[in-house]
Amino acid sequence: MSTPGVDPGRSRWTTNRARAEVLRDRYPFAAEVLGLYLALVDVWQDTADVVLEHPPEPEFLAPWVAEHVVPRVVTATEAAAPEALAKATRDLVEAGQVEEYLAGWLAGAELTPVERYLARASLWAPLVALGPDVVVAFADDPPRDDRHCPRCGGPPQVSFRSPAEDRLVSGSRYLACARCGQSWSYSASTCPSCGETTGAKRTVYSEQRDGPIVGRDDHGRQSDDVPRDDEPVFPHLRVDACASCEKYLIDVDLGRDTRAVPEVDELVAMPLDLYAADQGLSKITPNLMGF
């Protein structure tokens, strides 16, 4: 199942670019992260165009990406990333074995943070563009439970809620895959990591402010506008955590901000990630930028 309302063509990258630009202006602390993301979006859009017009053979995806995409990802990283990441990425490519890292990410192997960054940044657009109906050489025996992607068996990166007709309730919940970008429906009361359903073990952390937060948007404001001093910094983001496995995901409520893009908005949730870490929690899957 693809992400509701999002297609693998040019409109996806246009939407993501526009959202990243808005969030970069609104959250100065995330400017560097979103600057790198924007540099990668340019690579992804061009790559997706090529893949849609001349799809590579799925069984040879890793070598195709190593030849056609990795060099551009390295160039974008050197132009926009912190020097430490740029150097580490360049050194990794110069040392060889790039195809091994790409194949490892497809198969669900354990990779170092830099290896994971390079593999994810290089494979993201081809996997999104190829879509759910194309069989790629993923893990030989991927997990087939509802906590993993039904296409590739990958882990969830982010949780999001669709808009609901009643502004006092949350909409249906979805999980988005960290590996191939597909999304699938998932229970709102179940841990995406271990399957825990006991309410006492499930905790949601969100920002606090003076006075109650009624409904999905007390002020009728979209998050693109300048927030008031008494408003939360992240009115549509929260930490969805489980005490049983001590894992969490960032949850994006599209009812609170209909212009949110889960994979982009999750990148600005760094303060929430730090808070979750202080509670002894770890994210199910670090995002592209390592948070």
Short description:
This protein has 291 residues and is α/β, with parallel strands linked by helices. The protein has nine helices and seven strands, in the order H-H-H-H-H-H-H-E-E-E-E-E-E-H-H-E.
Unreliable stretches, pLDDT < 50, 5 or more residues? 1-6, 210-224
| CATH evolutionary superfamily of the largest domain | FdhE-like domain
Please give the number of β-strands.
7
**CATH class of the largest domain, please?**
Alpha Beta
Mean pLDDT: 89
The total count of helices amounts to: 9
Give me the strand/helix succession.
HHHHHHHEEEEEEHHE
Tertiary shape: globular
What CATH architecture of the largest domain would you give? Alpha-Beta Complex
Largest sheet: 7 strands, mixed
Assign a percent range to the helix content.
25-40%
Structural class designation: alpha/beta
Distance between the termini: 26 Å
Secondary structure topology:
Elements: H1 10-26, H2 31-53, H3 61-68, H4 70-80, H5 83-94, H6 98-107, H7 113-130, E1 156-161, E2 173-177, E3 183-185, E4 202-205, E5 237-242, E6 247-253, H8 262-265, H9 270-278, E7 282-283
Parallel strand pairs: 1-6, 6-7
Antiparallel strand pairs: 1-2, 2-3, 4-5, 5-6
Helix pairs in contact: 1-2, 2-4, 2-7, 3-6, 4-5, 5-7, 6-7
Name its key features:
disordered N terminus, 7 strands, alpha/beta, 291 residues, 38% helix, FdhE-like fold
Structural overview:
There is one protein chain. The chain has 291 residues and is an alpha/beta fold. The protein has two domains: 10-130, no CATH class; 156-283, FdhE-like fold, CATH 3.90.1670. It has nine helices and seven strands. The longest helix is centred in the first third of the chain and has 23 residues, at 31-53. The protein is globular, with a radius of gyration of 19 Å.
